[in-house]
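Duplicate of #3305? Posting structure anyway:
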């Protein structure tokens, strides 16, 4: 077990409450509806859908676990946390499992609470849909970040190995003069958009990860470079 200091400021930790209000309301409402369907299917005239209900249960639990990690003083690191992703997404969990086996054989650690990975990938994917994306792809591979990055928080150190999470979509993308640095480091005002990138920026700061973004109409990629000890 290793400990990484939580480098978030007091204001950043306080802003996490805004994320809870912004992004957890919808899945909780959906979860309540699904529970009602399970208990009283005649009300909705629908068959119970345990798979969908489990999806919302998983999402909600992981979202709150992630937010709890962001506001605690320190974040515990343990390779056993890799297993906790296996019931979340078939694609993501399979890739994580392969990576975990590889790094376990090399006696290397994949730092951070891995429950931090799922919620921000989920949130970015959801935002892609809001930008009219019809196709969203996630690619995960060992890859060092480029020298000129959009965002490298002060908490990032001189790691030699990284796992890159590339989330690509074919939506309308960001406007040409979009200020990514500001979006990743500034909490949006109430009622404003932009929590997805801010959320990603907070997680990058906690994990010492790095971010790069390339966007044009029909082709946007958000790259999250997760360090490996």
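Output from current build:
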């Amino acid at each position: 077990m290793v400990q990484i200091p939580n480098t978030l400021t007091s204001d950043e930790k306080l802003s996490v409450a805004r994320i809870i209000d912004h992004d957890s309301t919808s899945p909780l409402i959906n979860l309540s509806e699904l529970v009602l369907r399970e208990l009283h299917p005649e009300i909705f005239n629908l068959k119970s859908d345990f798979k969908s209900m489990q999806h919302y249960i998983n999402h909600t639990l992981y979202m709150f676990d992630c937010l709890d990690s962001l506001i605690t003083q320190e974040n515990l690191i343990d390779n056993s946390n890799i297993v906790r992703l296996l019931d979340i997404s078939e694609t993501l969990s399979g890739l994580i499992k392969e990576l975990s086996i590889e790094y376990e054989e090399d006696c290397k650690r994949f730092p951070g609470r891995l429950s931090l990975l799922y919620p921000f990938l989920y949130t970015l994917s959801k935002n892609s849909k809001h930008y009219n994306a019809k196709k969203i792809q996630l690619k995960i591979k060992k890859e060092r970040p480029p020298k000129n990055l959009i965002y490298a928080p002060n908490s990032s150190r001189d790691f030699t190995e990284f796992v890159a999470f590339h989330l690509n979509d074919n939506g309308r993308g960001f406007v040409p003069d979009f200020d990514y640095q500001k979006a990743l480091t500034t909490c949006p005002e109430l009622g404003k958009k932009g929590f997805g990138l801010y959320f990603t920026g907070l997680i990058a700061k906690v994990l010492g990860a790095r971010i790069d973004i390339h966007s044009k109409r029909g082709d946007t990629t958000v790259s999250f470079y997760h360090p490996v000890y």
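Confirmed duplicate; merging threads. The first helix runs from residue 10 to 23. The chain has one domain: 2-228.
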